[in-house]
Amino acid sequence: MLAVAALLLPASAWAQPADLQVTQILDQMAAEGARFQPGRLHAMGPQGLSMVLDRLLPDTADPKNVGASSETVADLIRQLGDARYRVRQSATQKLFQLGPGIRAYLVEATRDSDAEVSWRAARILRGWQARREKYGSRHAAAFAVYLQGINDDRRLEELARRARLALRSGLPGGTRRSLIEECIAAVARSEKEEYLQAFEPLLLHKDVPVAVFITETVGRRFPALLLAALQSGRDEVVEAAIRWTPNCTDGPRRAEVQRILVSFFEGGDESRKFLACFPLMHTFGHKPAADYLLLQVQSGNAERRDRALDWIGDRRNLGRPASDDLLKVLRPLLESPDSKTRRAASRALAMYGGEPVVRALLPLLDDPNASIATEMTYRLLQQRDRAMLGRVLEAAARDDPNETIRKRAAAILDKLGQGR
User: Quick check: 141 and 33 in contact, CB under 8 A?
Assistant: First the structure.
């Protein structure tokens, strides 16, 4: 069996013909990485983007850029099974040089009844993949910098088109996945719905990870596409979309998102109900969801309890007064024999403000776990009502029966005075 290396040309032959200016820019991108200054590439407009994508995502290049007719490609594939080694080798190298623009032909050739044809076709495909990973990894950081400056219609449309093409056969890994993600994220940043909607058919992709990938990548600003994801009926996609619903701030869309989330919360699917309660509580002020989340804190399911504590302690609650119900549920956990439980509960409660919160946290200044006691010093100093905090600390430093708490309250009081 021939070695893979014998099938492929050296690195100098990998590059397809391209404008010299773009070649120079790509060399600069590889050398500078995140320090890349993209002005020269931006000046080339849509043509520059297209030529860069031809290099980084070559299988998405227009067929017209392949440089050979379909008849020529078909003839070269037939030659892969020629009885003469020299002819087989020449055809292999020529097909490799034509690049991933002819990928569909090679994929079909891997199913050829001639074992030599199918074997060589598969080797060419693997060679392209190896080259793509090596080439793209050198340019990924600079490519991300370049995309930050794209907001014009022609290039956004091209990015959306190329990303869709790149995901045709499934979700890749490694650098290729990162490049595709950057393309989609650039379209999402524009908030131009017409280009984001172009990804909607991918929510029904036979490869479910592709649908989840699209949902998670566009979700940062909750475009209309996520409404379709919420209603897609595919559990993984719906759950990914739910996680982004706290980002929904648009008026009309907000009402529709709330309606869908309430339907999940009131439906029979316990998993969706649990996921929906976080955005319902934080974004929409839905009290039944908040009450349900407190019930999960008291659940015998440790994983669900810890996740509920994370949600209760989300930064969206910073400085809010803690309800009586919340204090009632968390106080027993602050006295748990399990240090992980005490830490999780104290972190959640410390996100809230007010005298009842400070008084509930003071005993943790003498926690058996020294790191929890240290963390509570920091957490108490984050209280926004400095006058209230000072008053409670003064009383603790003077009157608390626990000597350690008295000393540590006095130390926090000193820090509080220095910060005033």
Answer: yes
